[in-house]
Amino acid sequence: MKKAKRLAPIISNDMETMPFSSALDDHYISNCKIVHETIDIEPEEGLRIDKVIFENVNFLEAAWPRSEFIDVLFINCDLSNADFSRCVFHRTEFRNSKLVGTNFAEAGVRHTLFQDCVLNYATFGFSLCNTARFESSSLRYADFYQAELKQTEFDKCEMNDINFVEASLKGVDLSSNSFENIQVTVEKLAGCEVSPEQAMAFARQMGLVIKDV
After folding, report:
1. What is the dihedral of CA 20, 107, 81, 74, to 10 degrees?
2. Which pLDDT band holds residue 2 (cuts at 50, 70, 90)?
3. pTM as predicted
4. CA 52 to CA 39: how far, in whole Å?
């Protein structure tokens, strides 16, 4: 099956730079750029963020569940321990950002890029990742328990001790990524693409004794 092309955010290059407090209007932010800020709010309901660039922004353990991010860029941001559970991300990019322990549980992650990011201990349990891409990022101890990975790419990532238990890896190419140990459900490995070295690691993990002949 031919893979769908990931869609990039649709964002203007000449958006006005605004403080977050001024940009926020009744739980809605659109068509602006927010830079060099520390954001520490817990809205009473989900936010809708549309066509926004966040650059060099520190989110202090943001709790924004059930929010929508459409055509959004995060550049050099710190979103560690943020709660984005049950959020929707569409045409969104995270570049060179820190997302340690960030919660994407039950989120819809569509046409979204994570590039040069630190996602150690991030949680994607029960999420839907559709046409998403994880590139040159650290995913140590990240949790994808029972996540649905539709046309999702992992390229040149560090993913030691990542958890893919109960997640189908059919059609997922892990061959360019590095790991010594990952958690998987053996029955859901069929169709996963791996390197010869990774295949040996999986064999050992399943208890096989590999002999030179």
Report:
1. -40
2. low
3. 0.94
4. 15
